[in-house]
Specification:
It holds the Pfam family Peripla_BP_3. The structure is a single chain. With 332 residues, the chain is α/β, with parallel strands linked by helices. It has three domains: 4-56, Orthogonal Bundle (434 Repressor (Amino-terminal Domain)); 61-155 and 292-318, Rossmann fold (3-Layer(aba) Sandwich), CATH 3.40.50; 158-290, Rossmann fold (3-Layer(aba) Sandwich), CATH 3.40.50. Helices cover 45% and strands 17% of the residues. It has 14 helices and twelve strands. The protein has helices spanning 4-11, 15-23, 30-43, 49-56, 74-90, 104-110, 129-134, 158-171, 184-188, 192-208, 221-234, 249-258, 275-279, 292-308; strands at 61-65, 94-98, 116-119, 139-142, 152-156, 176-181, 211-216, 240-243, 268-273, 286-289, 315-318, 322-323. Strands 2-1-3-4-5-11 form a six-stranded parallel β-sheet, sandwiched between helices. Strand 9, helix 13 and strand 10 form a beta-alpha-beta unit. It is elongated, with a radius of gyration of 25 Å.
């Protein structure tokens, strides 16, 4: 393989000059840069993404910002990641995963490490939006901020998901319902999916005249137990529950059983979660699927379209689909 020393020798410059040309840390004359670019092309030098960017104006790498913040379910995050990786591979791109916000965005974009970005864990008023809007690289958000500022976004329509889950319970005659939702830290960050889920749930309850309660719930067995106990203390007549918390879901069902409220005999449950979560439980749960892998692939499709035509920015929300699995009882 060609080395930076080979490139310098072919271009008739020092190794440090080649390094500066690759990193952009110092200005290089147009004539010198042309010689270096020619040497890179002739030698097939591919030391890192910066070299490829200099030689071809692209890296064939997509950046994936997936910050692993407290309260997120890593298993679900990895389903989105798998979708992005699959879509990127199909389109001929590698994926550089970034798990921290601070400094990552500026570092990878200013040094031409990536051609474009997929951004996850989006908040209603996301602090990253101004920087993303100013980038020369296109980006797609998995999530929907309150004002996307012209950026492309894709996600499940969580507002409709929350409303659809409530309407299913209302149709079965349930008039006292609860949402066992995302962890408190996710809610306090005003994470987009949690905000929209709550809005949809509350709006449908109010429209249907249902008594309702929203309980942010830690993603743990202990958190699920505490939420069920709180729910039964505050709404002892509850008959319908929407669960939007994949980790808590099985423990919620177990705790209801321990408290003498069998599912679906005494309490009906609708979950909002990936399909594999709903079907893996001892009692299969009626659910609205979160098609995480599919959304990840759609994000890459949108991104490649943006790289061809920057005017293709759009917001795409996937319509929720409810699958019956017998955990909702008709009260008649």
């Amino acid at each position: 393989m060609a080395t930076i020393e080979d490139v310098a020798r072919r271009a008739g410059v020092s190794q440090s000059t080649v390094s500066y040309a690759l990193s952009g840390k110092r200005p290089i004359s147009a004539a010198t840069r042309t010689r270096i670019e020619k040497a890179i092309a002739e030698l097939g030098y591919r030391a890192h993404a910066g070299a490829r960017a200099l030689a071809s104006a692209r890296t064939d790498v997509i950046g994936l910002m997936a910050p692993l913040r407290t309260g997120v379910d890593v298993n679900v995050i990895m389903q989105f990641v798998a979708g992005v990786v699959t879509g990127a591979g199909r389109a001929g791109y590698d994926v550089l995963m970034l798990t921290q916000d601070e400094g990552s965005l500026a570092r990878v974009t200013s040094s031409s490490m990536v051609d474009a970005l997929v951004v996850m864990d989006v908040e209603d008023d996301d602090a990253r939006l101004p920087a993303l809007q100013a980038l020369r690289q296109p980006s797609v958000l998995i999530g929907l901020p309150a004002d996307p500022h012209g950026l492309s976004c894709v996600d499940l329509d969580f507002t409709q998901a929350g409303a659809s889950a409530v309407r299913r319970l209302l149709a079965a005659g349930h008039r006292t319902v609860a949402l066992i939702g995302s962890p408190r830290e996710v809610v306090d960050r005003h994470t987009s999916y949690a905000e929209r889920m709550t809005r949809g749930f509350v709006g449908a309850c109010e429209a249907g005249g249902a008594t309702h309660l929203v309980l942010p719930t830690p993603a743990s067995a202990a958190g699920a137990v505490a939420s069920v106990d709180t729910l039964l203390a505050q709404l002892p007549d509850v008959t319908g529950v929407v669960v939007h918390n994949e980790v808590a879901l099985p423990h919620v069902i177990s705790r209801f059983r321990e408290r003498g409220r069998d599912v679906p005999g005494e309490v009906s449950v609708v979950a909002v979660c990936p399909e594999n979560v709903a079907t893996s439980l001892p009692v299969p749960v009626t659910s609205i699927d979160i098609p995480a892998e599919g959304i990840g692939q759609i994000a890459v499709d949108m991104l490649t379209a943006l790289m061809r035509d920057p005017s293709m920015a759009e917001v795409r929300l996937v319509s929720p689909r409810l699958t019956e699995r017998g955990s909702v009882r008709d009260l008649g």
